[in-house]
Amino acid sequence: MVEPTPPTTRAPELERAFALQKELETADLTIIDLKNQFKQKDFSGLTDSALSSNPSNPLIVAADVQAQQSFLRKLKFHYMEQHAKDKYVKILVSPDEPGIDAEDNEQLKSLNTERKRLLKEQKVLLAETYEKIRQQSLQVDKAYEHAESSTKEAATLTQQILDAKLALTRLRAAYPSPRLTASEAIALADKQCDDMAQAQEKLAELTTEVEQLKTNVKNGVKEVERLKVERAAKEEELKRTRKLEEDNRWPALNDWYQAAVSLHKSLLCLEDFATPTDNELRLTYSLPKGLKTTIQLIFQPGTRELEVCRIIDSDVTIDIEELVFEHTQSNDVPGLIRNILARLRAES
Fold first, then answer.
1. Of 276, 314, 312, which is closest to residue 296 (Cα–Cα)?
2. Hey, how many other C-beta atoms are within 10 angstroms of the C-beta on 30?
3. 295 neighbors 311 (Cβ within 8 angstroms)
4. Which of 26, 140, 143, 212 falls between 20 and 30 A from 227, CA-CA?
């Protein structure tokens, strides 16, 4: 139970709450005494009863009480039976005349009938009383639990009220006048809520910007790595170029190569050449009378051997299948070109 702090001054409602709590705690209620007596009773010795295992179960208690009542009824009937037999035997063996006639039997019969009627009425009344007690006990138990919980709640609320008053007194002492009014406090709270909402929006924007910056940084790092690789390749190429520039043989070799190419073109009348793919070569030659022809050469990628040779664009048409077959066997590409050009020039 909560022990409230006694204030110097109390409101009447608080006084009544404390009084009700104290009255309920000090009240000598039968329901509490019966519960304590039942809890203090030792059922461990009742080995033939279910109460020894679980005495707090109402169903087990009811079944055990019903069994005891049945046993007592049988014991009572057995006692009455033995008592009647004993009395009957004593009357039979007694030397005195019992003096019992038909009128006495009628009186006893009527007396027994009246007693049975009264006993039956008393049993019915007792059963009704038991039923009322059972129903009222449930109501009393609920009412007691409600009163107990209400008093506890009242004591808790009372303590909270007193603590709130004490805290309010301390706040007033710590923050003397002038203080904010209710409207000013509400306006200040609304302004703080608006500021917090704006701060949340700003935080969301900054978070988005941070994510974007992280993405940009990742992309920048990837670009830097790519540029590093490209720079390394360029530096290697620059080193090779410098070596070539430092070597004096290359200019002469280049001039000789250019002169050889020009001589070859002039001798064979080669006007243009192209490589559409890695294994394809197209050669364009000039023929007499201003005619032209284009020869397509296709090589095998792995062995560099001639695989296909055909004329794809020519002003003069000839059959070169036999020539291609002969020179393909020996992989004689220059001889094939010379023979094709000779036939084309002869036909033109």
1. 312
2. 8
3. yes
4. 212
Q: What is the pLDDT of residue 107?
A: 87
Rounded distance between C-alpha atoms, residue 263 and residue 245, angstroms: 26
Spatial distance between the Cα atoms of 87 and 10, rounded to a whole number of angstroms: 77
Q: Report residue 274: phi and psi, to 5°.
A: -150, 150
> What integer pLDDT is reported at residue 5 of this predicted model?
45
Give residues with Cβ within 8 angstroms of 280, minimum separation 6.
296, 297, 298, 299
Token pair of 131 as six digits: 């039923």
Q: Which residue has the higher pLDDT, 266 or 305?
A: 305
320 C-beta neighbours (distance < 10 Å), count: 17
CA 315 – CA 287 distance, rounded (Å): 9
- Domain boundaries along the sequence of the chain: 12-174, 267-347
Q: Which range among 135-149, 155-169, 252-266 has the greatest average pLDDT?
A: 155-169
pLDDT tens digits, one per residue of 199-219: 999 999 999 999 999 999 999
Asked which of 109-118, 241-250, 258-267, 292-301 is least confident by mean pLDDT, the reply is 241-250
Angstrom distance (rounded) from CA 11 to CA 154: 14
Question: How does the average pLDDT of the chain come out, rounded?
Answer: 81
267-347 in CATH: which number? Answer: 3.30.457.50
Residue type present at position 181: T
Rounded-to-integer distance, Cα 196 and Cα 200, Å: 6
Q: Does residue 264 carry a pLDDT above 50? A: yes
* Type of residue found at 155: A
